[in-house]
Amino acid sequence: MIVLNTMPLRSQCLALTALFICLSCAGLSGCGPTGHTTISDPSAQATGFDWAIPTRYPLPVEPLDNPMTEAKFQLGRHLFYDPRLSGNGSQSCSSCHIQALGFSDGRTLPLGSTGEVLARNAQGLMNAAYNATQTWANPSVLTLEQQALIPLFSEAPVEHGITDSNRESVLQRIRDEPRYPALFSQAFPDLGDAIEFASIRNALTSFVRGMVSFNSPFDRFEQGERNTMSASAHRGRQLFFGEALECFHCHGGYHLSDSTRDRSMTFVDKPFHNTGLFNIAGNGDYPDDNQGIFEISADPSDMGKFRAPSLRNVAVTAPYMHDGSMASLSEVIDFYAAGGRVIAEGEHAGDGRMNPFKSGFVTGFEITDGQKADLIAFLESLTDESFLSNPRFSNPWEE
Amino acid sequence: MHKLRFLGLLLISIDASGHGNFSPPADPVLAASVMAGYTASNVESDTLWRIPGVQMGGETFGPEQGFQLHEATLGLDYANDDNVLGSAEISSHGHGGSNDLQLEQAFAGWFLESGEHALRLEAGKMKALFAPQNARHASAESFSQKPLVYDAFLGGHFTDTGARIRWQWRHDETRQLDAGIEVWRGDAFPATSGEDARNLDAYLRYRIHGRVWDVLFGGWYLHSQARNRSDDRLTSGHDHGGVTSVSDDVVFNGQTGTGGLHGEFDYALGPKSRITVSAEYWSVSSEGEVRDTTRLIALDGDYAGYALQGAISRGAHALALRYDQLILDNYVQGNGAELLAADAGLVSAESNPDRYTVSHNWTLAQGLSLRTELIRDRTTARLNTYGSLFLVWRQNFALY
Questions:
Q1: How do residues B7-58 score in pLDDT, each as one tens digit?
Q2: A217-386 domain in CATH 1.10.760.10?
Q3: What are the residues of chain A with a beta carbon less than 8 Å away from any beta carbon of chain B?
Q4: pLDDT tens figures, B94-124
């Protein structure tokens, strides 16, 4: 049993006051140093190129054997717009990648230099540097350097049409252009005679890699500007990033595609999706000339799987889908709302909604006309007008 | 035949044996508490409390506006003549508008007392004893919330399945030494369930009783190992209403060492007056990797935190003040360190997170009190000042 001393009330008050003063002083003085987070990511900002993108976005990966320089970018820009870089001198990269159309071509399917129709729609090139894979359906084409060789040299189908028999004459055309020797020597100062296809490829890819921009109304909204999107676009944004429509699962993130690679990543996913465009004869098949990554893997479950493209500038890159089979955003939304496409008759007849390899995110949804309009308004807010008219990406031969 | 008997005037500790007292009760004791009230908060709704600079987890939640059942517990402590003991407790804590009932403790044990020495062996689901306030209920404390160090480094409170051995050496009437080792399965934050998970702690305390004063001081250390630990506060069996989900694909792999020192001084100012001051200091070292689906970074976190607490009581009134602060240092390295550190909540704020709490407890009747709290909280980027009013009921019943 404790025998208590009795402290006078005045002393108790003093003790209380002293206690509170001590604790308050301890708190107010902020005892101890201030905590800090030190971040070490030496590669994050290491570049010799002015990417001119907001700091909140990670930089694209630059290949060790082809680091970005402004000289290579400018040389690549000239080559990109030069039809002499084709077997018959009629086709440049810009023939199928038109700046005003987000570097797509507005056609259902593009034409090669010899008039051959390609199997897949020409994709827009904005921010292609962030693609985890570079074509519609090839998991092994990871870099722009790999991709660039395909249109230049492919034989089936013919695109630029450069072959063993004409490659020297193509190079000679380039060498004969008075602007090029200086551009090449600036871009590749360590090479004696730089006008070779290896340096042409590296310059072209530097230009395409440098086609980055984050200046759409949606981007500016995400960066803190509050009045860049209409009320309708805001509502559409809610729909787009909501679970009811599921759009964001394949078209989310800053790249608006789940196939994204940047230098912040250690592990890079390379997803491909079957969206239920076809289900020929009910066994999941796609047309023989366009079967997605099944053509590479031969895995039956890969039938009809294509990369989800970035939706940047999507409002100006119609028509849509890998085969360009949908003319408008409205048609695309109707397609996803239905959960796939039904082809009633013909050689491709089948109910795409029932395709056994279809993505689990394409399950269909209900959408009103008003919501559809909102969703389209949001998709239109992804258009980066400054990119579409930026002289930096325009045809230098017209200057 | 057992009868339920109200023992409000008996000097049975509020925290019965299962909560830290060494000697089990002679008779079975049923302890019950209810704490409910209203919180007027300016904290944004639909957000999860994340203190910038530290990966949180477990079961810690920020203040929530409105009426809530803050705590409801029912516990039973039992011991027989064969030195066998048992303890069980169920509880409900309100978060996000829901109250889920859970088994807080259920363990059995054996005890032995011989001269100056006493020993207890216990196993089961238990609240850990290493941190002095871990096993205490808000209804039995001066404040409704535990110190910040518990929220930031221990997931609010630590309950795991395991075994422990406790030893007490009573030098004489006035001095005693308590020590314990606890080995856990590793289900509790900061560890994780499954392979390679581990929680292991040890503690030491020394208490000196004076004629009108009482001093306690001690230290402890907890070693934890986590594998793919995520902040699953929203998904681990709780329904938290419309709370916005945080990035749930960020996981931590590594080990955490947490050490603490604490002291408490209690002085009787008069027959009905006392003053109590206490302090806790924690030091935490967290080392490992943080990853999401695309990124991987190395984390070296050095954290510290302390709580200074004082209370004075006179008659039916008790006034208490507490100041908490955290110091959160992180070193992160790797591709995308800046982005992943931000996603993982590892970017420290410009000033140290801290919190003032002032509390007044008014004992209305035996076991029933009214608690008023004012809190100034700077644990997030936004200063939150809020108040709470709770009605607290707590009673022990002897069953015999």
A1: 333 333 333 333 456 778 878 899 999 999 999 876 655 567 889 999 998 8
A2: yes
A3: 2-7, 11-12, 15-16, 19-20, 22-24, 26-27, 30-41, 43-44, 58, 262-269
A4: 765 566 788 999 999 999 998 899 999 999 9
Output the pLDDT for position B46.
53
The whole-chain average pLDDT of chain B stands at 87
Residue B285 has pLDDT above 80, yes or no: yes
| CA–CA separation, B178 and B167 (whole Å) | 6
Contact B310 A19 (CB under 8 A): yes
* DSSP state letters, B122-160: EEEEEE-SSSTTTT--GGGSSSSS--HHHHHHHSSS-EE
Q: Which residue has the tokens 């989900």?
A: B245
User: Does residue A364 sit in helix, strand or coil?
Assistant: coil
Note whether B335 contacts A23, CB cutoff 8 Å: no
Q: Structure tokens of B382? A: 């936004």
Q: How far apart are CA B28 and CA B310, in angstroms?
A: 33
Listed by start position, the domains of chain A span: 70-213, 217-386
Place of tokens 């993505």: A359
- pLDDT tens digits for range A150-176: 999 999 899 999 999 999 999 999 999
Q: Which residues of B touch A39 (CB under 8 A)?
A: 332-333, 337-338, 341
Q: From CA B400, how far away is CA B393, in angstroms rounded?
A: 23
Are A37 and B310 inside 8 Å of each other by CB?
no
B4-399: CATH topology: Porin (2.40.160)
Residue segments in chain A with a per-residue pLDDT below the cut of 50: 1-5
Domain-by-domain residue ranges, chain B? 4-399
Asked, colleague to colleague, whether A70-213 and A217-386 share their fold, the answer is yes
pTM over 0.80: no
Read off the pLDDT of each residue in B217-246 and give the average, rounded to a whole number.
Answer: 69
Dist CA B144 CA B135 (whole Å):
14
Set of chain A residues whose Cβ sits within 8 Å of the Cβ of B293: 267, 269
Query: Domain A70-213 maps to which CATH number in 1.10.760.10, 3.40.50.11540, 3.40.50.300, 3.40.50.1110?
Result: 1.10.760.10
